[in-house]
Amino acid sequence: MIRRPPRSTPLYSSAASDVYKRQAHYRTHLNVAGFYEKRGDWKLALQHIEAAMQLNPLISRPYEEKGLLLQRRGKLAEAHDAFELALNRNANDPRLFARAGDIEALQRRWLGAIEHYRDSTRVDPSYTLGHIKLGLSLARAGQFEAARVALSLADALATHERDVREAFAYVSGLEQEQRAH
């Protein structure tokens, strides 16, 4: 039979208990936010995300979730700000750089997108989607040779083969279209 340690041990100190409660409540708020968003109540979803941010202001996930919610709502400037705040808390997550790049790409700001996607591949050179998105943004900026290099790096990683093939085809089509004009 496994027994719990007595409550007088450091495991049950008030500081440890407070940290545990904050962690539990932070996750609960994010889960509830997802529920409200699925119901279509994005304002309540945002309130719960912001409550999670207050409970754990040093963790990037609530800021990322806020960015994703705002992106889905079409509030791209606010979404970009949320992703930047997430990056301030965790600059080692290539997905956060890619998400910020996605916002730039949605606004056709190719140089900003390129910068973020490059950062995503710098943080994790094995992040295939970062290389693919970098290649696509480079092509949209008219840098076709650099786009092929980025896509070749993605291809060498041997994951997302279909996405890489489609990206190469898109880049070729975009280059041909640009030459025709």
Explain what the structure shows.
With 181 residues, the protein is mostly helical. It is 77% helix and 0% strand. It has 9 helices and no strands. The N terminus is likely disordered.
How would you sum up this structure in a few lines?
This protein has 181 residues and is mainly alpha-helical. 77% of the residues lie in helices and 0% in strands. The protein is elongated, with a radius of gyration of 21 Å.
Distance between the termini: 78 Å
Strand content: under 5%
Structural class: mainly alpha
Strands, total number: 0
How many helical elements?
Answer: 9
Report the C-alpha radius of gyration, rounded.
21 Å
Which blocks of ≥5 consecutive residues have pLDDT under 50?
A: 1-6, 9-20
Largest sheet: none
Specify the overall morphology. Answer: elongated
Regarding quaternary structure, what we see is single chain
Helix content: over 70%
Mean pLDDT across residues: 89
- Written as H for each helix and E for each strand, in order along the chain, the element string is HHHHHHHHH
Give the tags.
single chain, 181 residues, mainly alpha, 9 helices, 77% helix, disordered N terminus
Write the layout of secondary structure elements.
Blueprint: H1 14-39, H2 42-55, H3 61-72, H4 76-89, H5 94-106, H6 110-123, H7 128-140, H8 144-156, H9 161-180
Helix pairs in contact: 1-2, 2-3, 3-4, 4-5, 5-6, 5-7, 6-7, 7-8, 7-9, 8-9
